[in-house]
Every structure is written in structure tokens, then in C-alpha cells.
Amino acid sequence: MANSTDFLGGLAQAPDNSSLVLKSYFWLQQNASIWSILFTSFVALCIYDQISYIIKKGSIVGPKFKIWPIMGPFLESMNPKFEEYKAKWASGPLSCVSVFHKFVVIASTKELARKTLNSPMFVKPCVVDVAIKILRPTNWVFMDGKDHVDYRRSLNPLFSRKALSVYLPPMAEVQNEYLERCVKQSENGSTTYMHLFREFMCAISLRTFCGTYITESQVKVISDNYFKITEAMELVNFPIILPFTKPWYGKQMADMTMEIFEKCAQMAKDNMAAGKEVTCTMDAWCKLMVDTKQREAEIGVAAAKADKKSYVREFTNKEISETVFTFLFASQDATSSACTWLFQIIADRPEVMRKIREEQLRLRNNDCTVEADLDLIDKMDYTHMVVKEALRYRPPVTMVPYVVKKPYPVTPDYTVPKGSMVIPTLWPALHDPEVYENPDEFIPERWLPGSPANQAQSNWLVFGTGPHVCIGQNYVMMNLISLMGKACMLYDWEHTITEKSEDIRVFATIFPDDDCILKFSKREHPEVL
Ligand code: HEM
């Protein structure tokens, strides 16, 4: 076994002009076994990792050192407990944790969360490490600065009021179909509904985005298997995509979905070129491209380009498929979470269900067959307040991971090091007792016009803020308000309350820990309150 005398001896044999590192290397080569080299390297790595952590942590809240060398609290984070997240957020405005090589800073106050979301000079979205591989590095959501702003400008019309009014009728058809499936699933009594709601929301998204270009069987395969993508994106996952791991299955599923989307994009292009009607998001996008081409022919390329508001460049099928995939990705877990909580919350509060029913019948003059259009949805004030309160009470997105591009002075006393992850946290702002009295109670009336909740715009972080604020937020409200209005008017459902119903399980977003046990039935006389 090598000892310190051998070490000096080894150094003596090294060339005179060699550095200490080289001398050490020569000594190791001559004296150390492979095991002692590995052991020494591991110890050196652990020491480096600990020192690096302590320096990066600086003055903010977090473990004094990494109890588990290198990997940190990786194992605990595999099955995150919501109460542990809450404890972390309460531990200080800024707190930290280090998992493997990744140093993570959590920004918990409204001010620090808003500041981070509005600091594109210093940070950019990173979702989770494997997301770049699954969504592909070329995906627009990873664009930064002007490139991102320009790209997003082309997408904004896809969520305009005009576009939403096109999406509403097919959305209503899927809602009708799945509400009937909810009843069918209850034929043998109460069951868990979280999985069906996930499938439901996926089917709505696919129909809205791809219209009838996507077949029923493709919708089924994607909605049945989408959870594999969610699993791959867990906050903490193995950083490399190894075969047969969750990220690997997720990537297979994402690639297959994007392949389907590419084909749909071509069909949409063909239909729009042939002057057919816009029926879905892909159509709406391709129509903008056709219109731009027409304007170019009429007034010339330069003049068409100068009108930045209406100019939309030609996008490839691959770009369209990757972008529409981000819509599905951004929508799927968050909307499923909101939908699940809404059904549970309303079932537990018969008075809320009754008030929604009353509003729906009144606005339709007691004609339950009337399908809502956007103008009718605008008038659903109470249903709107219920949906808004559910999004506040159980915000689907509780954290938005960003990566630090250059040292980010988040406070006068602390700068987040380059390369770290910084996670603005939305829950505390949405449960701020100064703005939302009794924040852990579900009170739709807190959203009445002129109320403190309505005035505190800066606390409303459900959809984020800044350059990456949710592009689909109006679409989300349209979907959830029309769905809950219709469900309350036409159906009854009961919730089996278990001791886990109010416990929150983190699965990308948040869900009731018992998967929401319900029993649906169709109302025989929906026109009667
Ligand atoms: C209840 C449902 C939803 C919630 C709570 C939600 C919330 C959010 C949040 C918190 C962000 C990050 C904002 C930021 O970084 O400041 C975001 C981004 C985004 N959301 Fe949503 N979202 C929902 C549904 C949707 C839907 C249905 C779509 C598409 C149709 C969508 C598309 C997007 C996109 C594309 C981004 C990234 C925007 C960008 O980087 O410029 N989301 N969403």
C-alpha cells in the first residue's frame, strides 16, 4: 500500500521541471493501485462537490452540507411529498438544494417569483433536465430573447378570440362524449376518475390542435400513453436517457406523437391552400401562412414583412409538430389537474353545484340543449369565479424551473450562480393571507368585482408572468368554464371522501392523493334545479 514516503519518492523520480500535478500523476502511476486511484478520485470529487455546494449556497437557507455525497437528496426527491415542498417554501424567501451536479435555488415569495419570471436577461425556462432531449433542442420554448418574442408573436393569433370560437364546437363534442363515458364508468359504482380525466383532457387538446386530421385510434394511443411523457419529466430523474428507463419511454412516446403531428400539419397545409375552412389550431396557423403569401403577392415581400402584426413566415411541418407538441405538453398535466380538482371540489360543495346549475339554466332560458358560444361563456360569472378559485386553491403549476444563464443577482445579498436552476414558486403568492382571507378555504365569492383578490393582480400567478406567461390561458378558461357549466347542468356526481382526498400528490402537477373517487349519473330532468 502506498504511503507518504512512497509519495515523496515518486516525486523525486519525476522530471525536475514538472508541476505538482504532474509529479502527483507520476507518483500515482508508479505506486498506486487502480483501486486506490479510484478511491482517491472519489474522495476528491466528494470534497470538491461539498465545497462547491457550500460556496454556492452562501447565506441562503438550505442544508449546511450535502449529507449524501454527490447525489444529495436524490432518493427523497424520487417520491416528493407536498408537505415537504411547503416546508421548503416556508423555510425562507430563498432556499436551496443540490442534487447530483445541479444546484437548485427556490424563490418562494411573490416578489422573488415575479422578479425571476421577469428576468429574461439572466434566466430562461428549462422545465427539467431531460425536457430538452424529449421536446428537442430545436423547440421554440427553449428560444431566448428576441428569437422567442418573434416566434411567439406568430403563435398569439392561434389563441385569439376568433380562433377560440372555432375551437369551441369540436371541444364541446369531445366534452359530450367524455361526460357520457364518465357515466358509463360509474355503471358498477364509484371508481377513481383521475385517469379518465387525463384521457379526457388529452382528447380535447388533440381534437382542438389537430382537428379531424388526427384519427380516433391515434387520439386513443396518445391519450392512453401520455403519462409516459409526464413520468419522464419528473422534477428529479436520471440525467441520461438509458434504454428502458422512464425518460426513454417518454422520448419514444414524444417522437411518435410528433411524427403524427407532422403528417397532420401537411394535411392542414393542403386544406388551407385549397381554401377550406379553419377547423383547428393547425388550420389556423397554416391559414396565417397562406394569407401572408397572398399579401406578399399583392403588395410585395418587403411591404408584407413590414407589417409585423400580420406577417407570418413559412413554418415547416417539423416546426409545427414540435410547437403543437409543446401546447399538448404544457396543457396536459395542468388541465387534467384542474379538471380533477374541480370535479372533486364541486361535488363536496352542493351549494356551489346548485349555484352553477342555476346560472347555466338562467343563461340558456332553461333550454339545456343550447351549446355555449363565447358570448354565453362570458356571461357565466359565477362558474367563472368557481374555476378561478379552484385554480388559486389548487394551482396546477406550483413551480416553474428556470436555468441561470449568467450570475443572477436575485437580491442585493445573493447572486444565483450561472448554470444553477432557479425555481419561482407560485403557491405562496396564491395562498397569501394578506390578499386571500382564509387562503386554505375554497371561496368563489372572493372573486366578486372590486374584491381584494381581484385587485391584487400581482398575486395571480397561476399562469406565470413575463415573456413566457401561459399562451393558452384564455383557452383554458373557455374549456373549464364550458365543461363545468355543462357537467353541473346535465349530470350529478358524488364524491367518496377518503382520508387522502385532501392530500396532495405531486405528479408533475398536483392531484388528490386518492385519485378522486366519484360516481356519475345523468340528470333525468336537467331543466329542474
Ligand atoms: C390549467 C391549465 C394551465 C396552467 C395552470 C398553465 C400554467 C402555465 C405556467 C405557469 C406557465 C409558465 C409561465 C412562465 O414561465 O411565466 C405556462 C407556460 C406555457 N403554457 Fe400554460 N398552463 C395551462 C394550460 C395551457 C394550455 C392549454 C396551453 C396550450 C394550449 C398552454 C401553453 C403554454 C405554453 C406554450 C407555455 C410556454 C410559453 C412560452 O414559453 O412563451 N398552457 N403555463
UniProtKB/TrEMBL annotation:
Keyword Heme: yes
Biochemical pathway: Steroid metabolism; ergosterol biosynthesis; ergosterol from zymosterol: step 4/5
Listed InterPro entries: Cyt_P450, Cyt_P450_CS, Cyt_P450_E_grp-I, Cyt_P450_sf
Binding of heme, residues: C470
Cofactor: heme
A Gene Ontology BP annotation from the UniProt entry: sterol metabolic process
Family annotation (Pfam families): p450
Keyword line: Heme, Iron, Metal-binding, Monooxygenase, Oxidoreductase
Annotated GO MF terms: heme binding; iron ion binding; monooxygenase activity; oxidoreductase activity, acting on paired donors, with incorporation or reduction of molecular oxygen
Residue ranges of the TM segments: none
Family of the protein in this entry: Belongs to the cytochrome P450 family.
PANTHER family given in the database record: C-22 STEROL DESATURASE ERG5 (PTHR24286:SF228), CYTOCHROME P450 26 (PTHR24286)
Protein name according to UniProt: C-22 sterol desaturase ERG5
